């Protein structure tokens, strides 16, 4: 919670969130953490698809499972939920009114999907020229794939990430693998947030909003970083290398007597310290291994030698030895060990938000730390339609009678 001397950086901004699943909700959650008023528009009776993506489910105050999935909880704190039937003209009109009062709109409908309702960028910009309208799709608003649906798993494959992830061909368990979380969606949400904040800065200069076109495929390729650059510069298609690094050795996992550890040697000085800690000082003087380019060339020989030594002691013993030697090293933690780690606990990475009649909602904290502005955890992920009356009253000044009429006609 913020202190009395702190203020949320985005306090006063209004975000209309028409997105669902992960990429869009991740972006709007981040804006909500930074203080924006985020209103999530959901389908009556069903809501965001991820509400049903369980188990596990959040328990109620008695420990019994509810219909709130852990997946939904991960991306929807600091939002208010309103249900609106977009298929009905009255529902479309409500969203237009909300957009007229919003600073930012985030949506992830298929290309052209909102145009039939008059909720596309051009239609809403005519009502609110200051509106920043962020569209998130699998392949973008243009190009031969624009009309195709795109999901994280599909994009990890098409965008090259899976070609780089997994064990090398010809080894046990070889073949491409996806990352263990929907990383492309998460990265797209982060890029969306950056784009929105840039558009806000531009609006301060020009007075006008704009349309942001974000594609999961574009984001995935952009996030290939050095691997994409290696291909563009060197012309060689990178291959799967398991946990090894294409340009740095040793930079991978190694077996210990009770598991595995990660060693991340970034320069020749660290390699010398690493050899000393292993009791193999002569390796640092060997011309095959003395410099990183030589270690890359003689990777197989060196890795075999290192493995024969690391397997003789436990992970904890090696981590302690490498820590004393100044060599980056650590265990491969399961999530129970992650959240039990003293560094993780000291940084407050786990937070809980109370919710009346329910168990407290455990969540992962926003990792941004600012010296002046606060990160707030004011609202737990909302129940479906929980804030319909509140939002229509706050944003549109509607009367209780008018809202009751909308409910009776199943518009909200």
List its salient traits.
412 residues; alpha/beta; Rossmann fold; formyl-coa transferase, domain 3; six-stranded parallel sheet; three-stranded antiparallel sheet; 17 helices; CoA-Trfase_III_dom3_sf; CoA-transferase_III_domain; CoA-transferase
Description:
The chain is of the alpha/beta class and 412 residues long. It has two domains: 7-223 and 345-408, Crotonobetainyl-coa:carnitine coa-transferase, domain 1 (Rossmann fold); 251-334, formyl-coa transferase, domain 3 (2-Layer Sandwich), CATH 3.30.1540.10. 38% of the residues lie in helices and 16% in strands. It has 17 helices and 15 strands. It has a six-stranded parallel β-sheet, with helices on both faces. A three-stranded antiparallel β-sheet has the order 10-11-12, with helices on one face. Strands 1-15 form a two-stranded parallel sheet. Helix 7 packs across helix 8. The chain is elongated, with a radius of gyration of 25 Å. This is CoA-transferase. Keywords: Transferase.
Whole-number count of domains: 2
- The gross shape turns out to be elongated
Helix percentage range: 25-40%
The largest sheet has its strands arranged as: 6-3-2-7-8-9
Q: CATH top level of the largest domain?
A: Alpha Beta
And the CATH topology of the largest domain?
Answer: Rossmann fold
Distance between the termini: 32 Å
What structural category arises from helix and sheet content? Answer: alpha/beta
Helix run count: 17
Poorly predicted regions: none
Beta strand %: 15-25%
Look at the structure and give the mean pLDDT: 95
> What kind of sheet is the major sheet?
6 strands, parallel
Which architecture name of the largest domain does CATH use? 3-Layer(aba) Sandwich
Could you name the CATH homologous superfamily of the largest domain?
Crotonobetainyl-coa:carnitine coa-transferase, domain 1
- What gyration radius follows from the Cα positions, in whole Å? 25 Å
Q: Give the assembly state of these chains.
A: single chain
Number of strands: 15
